[in-house]
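Predict the holo structure. Ligand: GFB.
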Amino acid sequence: MDKSNCIYVAGHRGLVGGAIVRRLEREGFTNIVTRTHAELDLTDQAAVYAFFEDTRPAYVFLAAAKVGGILANSTRPAEFIRENLLIQTNLIDAAYHSGVSKLLFLGSSCIYPKMAPQPLKEEYLLTGALEPTNDAYAVAKIAGIMMVKSYRRQYGFDGISVMPTNLYGPGDNFDLTSSHVLPALIRKIHEAKVAGEPSVTVWGTGTPRREFLHVDDLADAAVFLMSAYDDEEIINIGTGEDVSIGELAALVADVVGYEGEIVYDTSKPDGTPRKLLDVSKLRGLGWSPKVGLREGIAATYEWYVAQGTR
Ligand code: GFB
């Protein structure tokens, strides 16, 4: 990518897209194109085609998606499958037809089978049944991966698919009905501390294990892979380390300075027991994460508190 190339970041108002724009700006890219939802509805095929014909970006980061935590995924699967299929189908096809030089599609670690061996190697894709709490979202993402791969095979289109682990950071969604676990715990534990509550409720048993990557590291890896990776096979982006939800709650409580009790609501789902990515392929290319979990949680907590005081 040249600094003056036209680069379209789809989904720039989201956690991932926002971080990619910040990363590109910091590196001195001068021609970054973004569109808000009000300006361009990515589920509207005609509007997406017209946008690509007018703008003709050279590179596309496809970070636009309908995303959410375990509750949102399990209670609104129709929205997750429909919106993600429409957005990615429109963007990938329009990018190909308008002559985009390269497209990077973001998947998710939930595409792997629920009971796959750990850590999850890229080759485990489509070797077993999915986790039911997010199977609709996962099927949409798998369709995106297959579309990128098929356009490469049939048309020679230069698309790559990257699979990030669970992400967090500034700009995350802190709505308790739709958020992922990390922002949810930051909010719940902060509010319990402020209100002097004796305990905080964490969903599930606390035993599932998750790997967390700071979104600035993800953005760094995505920009790196746009240049360094060129293959039809997917590539994982993670830290290679995970923690249990119980350990995560204790860490967040420590960062926030909350000394109350953590109680578990086992009527809520645990989801997949573990999804730790094998990151040897990415490390082999020379990339590794920079933000440690405690440090990343502290920075995200600071950002969250600052939002409320603005
Ligand atoms: O982050 P999370 O919602 O999604 O939940 P997944 C991870 C774990 O944290 C689950 C537990 O075991 C939850 O039960 N948890 C505990 C909580 N307390 C809370 C809470 O207050 N809020 C939330 N949200 N969880 C998602 C998928 O799976 O991960 C998506 O549904 C996507 O498709 C995303 O892949 C990265 O890690 O289980």
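Residues 7-169+212-239+276-290 form a domain with the Rossmann fold fold (CATH 3.40.50.720). The pocket of GFB is lined by residues 69-71, 73, 108, 110, 133-134, 137, 166, 179-181, 184, 202-204, 208, 210, 245, 268-271 (CB under 6 Å).
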